[in-house]
Protein: aspartate transaminase
Amino acid sequence: MHMVAAADMPVMSTGLVMRIQSIRIDDNGNPWPLPVVRKVEEEIVKEMTQEYEYLWALGDKSFTSAASRLLLGGESMAIAEERVASIQSVSGTGALWIGAKYISRVLNYNTFYMSSPTWNNHRSIFECSGLTDAREYRYWDPVTCSIDMEGLLEDLRNAPKKSVIILQACSHNPTGLDPTRHQWSQIVDVLEVVNLLPYHERGLLPFLDCAYQGFASGDIHQDAWTVRYFEKRGLEFMCAQSFSKNMGLYIPLSLNLSFYDVIKSVYCD
Structure:
């Protein structure tokens, strides 16, 4: 909390203020939603299109469908073949929690792997969801200042059956270092081999965390490449998709659907 307070202290009269886990730009240090978000909010108010009925259990269908297309692309075969299940949740943390809870209670997984290092809330979210065997796979090599691919792949190969593998789709937190496309193909090669096992012996379940779509390259489609590549390769996976950062929407308000995030499971035949 002392770091947050220090980060909030003004250091210059103008410019972009980078705060822990958020981006603030006005003089009062408030979050900055994108102009397009404000424009859409105004249009909703003017056109009176906002509905005040209860949402169904899985959330607003138009929102989850649009979010899925943004993540997987308009040419997604998984969407066309109706192999995508989407759930609207409260924040990216909520998306991760719902997915982890499902994995724990329904799929009976207990082990999960996260990169070393990773976002510090990954561990607590998954442990509170019922997955108590927390492990790490090697990621950052402080000597070479690069990804330890040899160690990463070795750790994935040695992971026990029925393990969840948390992978950050882009803008890795906290290192900022993402695998190259070739390195992602190596990761998927390992996951693909393990998942050829019969379902009751199923090995590694990838859980992609997409919290910064658009922040790695400046292109939302390029930053979704990893998730789309997983679909193209035919893997079954989950993905928590957040709009907190790329739309500047941090506090979920009821009935404002842009303030929510989505968790998706892609099921492959």
Remarks:
- The domain at 59-266 is CATH 3.40.640.10 (Aspartate Aminotransferase; domain 2).
- The chain is about 35% helix and 20% strand.
